[in-house]
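Researcher: Here's a chain I'd like modeled. Treat it as a single chain, no partners, no ligands.
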Amino acid sequence: MDIYDEIFKMCSEHGITFYSTLPCSHNLKFIQKLEELDGEILENADKALIHIPLVREESGVSLSAGAYLGGRKTAMVIQNQGLGNMITQLLSLNSHLNGSYRIPNLLIISHRGLENEKINAQKPVGSKSKEILDLVGFKHCSVKYISDLKKFQELLGEYDKGQNVALLVEPDHSKPLYRIENEKNIIRNFKGNTIPMNKVQANMTRHKAISEIINQIENEFVVSNLGHPSRELHRLKDRERNFYLTSCLGHSYTLALGLALSTEDINQKIICFEGDGGLLMNAGSLSILAHKKPKNLIVILLDNGVWGSTGNTETYALNEVNLSGVAQA
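Model: Modeled as a single isolated chain. Structure tokens:
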């Protein structure tokens, strides 16, 4: 049995049903299994497994946070090279530091850059991965063989208690790497659109837009982005079903996506406010939103062309980038 088969079995026994992943050569079979089981209800589970392939690691942190708020236990399956990308989100959403949301997270990490690593570029982050996990307050252990997984069982117990934990899996370089064979003659489908240049006089303020929308809200959950939108939403209609993401710029829509996917079976409606600057910062994860298309999520882009909360300096959306075109694409 492959070590990742046993890891998946242990995760399933602890009720983990929401996975977000980025591949490493050494965790590929695990990710392929998650792809095959996506949407399936496994033995002893009450909800279908959800698998989200990521485009950047930090989006997985906010997706997992949203899924946890929706009642899911989550795990991220990544390579350690992505840990540096995740530090802000891990500190802001997961850690137990003052000001953090303290949302539990589980990381399953392919630990590259150790002894016998053939790629020298893996070694700088490989040598500091445990220190990064210590920095963000994650309890962690390292394993290489199935016989080592008793340590992971203990970590899962800590995760069940609300702690942040990470399993570092040392690759077995004695085994040949698994590869997915590329299909020949693949036909790729590309959507195209032509958007003419239009000049638009923007008369509605951000405050007015939020006010108009919030007056229509009844039982929907609302996720708002950091800065003025969260402050204005709080003043206009503070309620238990509002989630104010006051950190992690550009991640309100990915957190809302995780929440929406985790509550789609009960048709819980989610409204999300995101800003143009934040969307530009995390535009790559729009591909996940376009792929999953949850019917219970509405993302509202507050596109005023400026960084409103930090002095109204211009964003590229003011005159250069048509975010409506990005959304259509």
